[in-house]
Amino acid sequence: MLSDRGSLLASMADRKHTKEICTVLFLCVLWYAVSSTNNVVGKMLLNEFPYPVTMTMVQLLSITIFSGPFFNLWGVRKYVDISWNYYFRLIVPLAFGKFIASVFSHVSIWKVPVSYAHTVKATMPLFTVILSRIIMGEKQTTKVYFSLVPIIVGVGIATLTELSFDVIGLVSALVATGGFSLQHIFSKKVLHDTGVHHLRLLHILGRLALFMFLPVWLFVDFFSLLKDDSVVN
């Protein structure tokens, strides 16, 4: 009897583990597909509308306007209380990083082919491992470090053989990748410390980044847009 019960529990645990693996794989594939589509569409827009800061601000505005009502409709749990000290110490820098990473990501796909920008973004695990070690003191296994070697070699080969190579595009892609890696590291800490829902955190960061960098957009793009006949007309 006990043996049968143990076998049943083990079978249930195996099914749960398999389901979790399939869910993670599905989410990874879905994320890559959405990210790739977003970059392709972004490339098409930037070819006709070369204003990456404006594109970033529109993206942040969309998050600010649409996310709140959608999350309420979807039943995503409300905000949690976050102290002002913690807010300024981690949330504000996260919002700053979100804007910077998004701007440089748009600049990269504007300057270089989407395929090359995505190749450079493949270095994100490298950035994450290094920054986690420096900031959080996390140590990885030797196998993890060795698994990063093919990534470095692959990006190096892609850079040397890229016909449309652009220094600004490469640097922008690297800065964006590093910025997104920092976001992942500190977002994980915020989620752990505060218990805020990850989608609500996205809404908070998008809204805060929008208002923080509105003056930057006015200075960088607004007056240029007013003078651009192709946009005004």
SSE order and pairing:
Elements: H1 2-48, H2 52-74, H3 84-111, H4 114-121, H5 124-136, H6 142-147, H7 149-161, H8 167-194, H9 198-212, H10 214-227, H11 229-232
Helix pairs in contact: 2-3, 2-9, 3-8, 3-9, 4-8, 5-8
Briefly say what this structure is:
The protein is mainly alpha-helical and 233 residues long. Helices cover 85% and strands 0% of the residues. The N and C termini lie far apart (80 Å).
Report on the structure:
The chain is mainly α and 233 residues long. The protein folds into 2 domains: 1-48; 52-232, no CATH class. 85% of the residues lie in helices and 0% in strands. The chain has 11 helices and no strands. α3 crosses α9 (198-212). The chain is globular, with a radius of gyration of 21 Å. Residues 24-223 form the Sugar phosphate transporter domain. The chain crosses the membrane at residues 21-41, 53-74, 86-109, 115-132, 144-161, 167-187, 199-220.
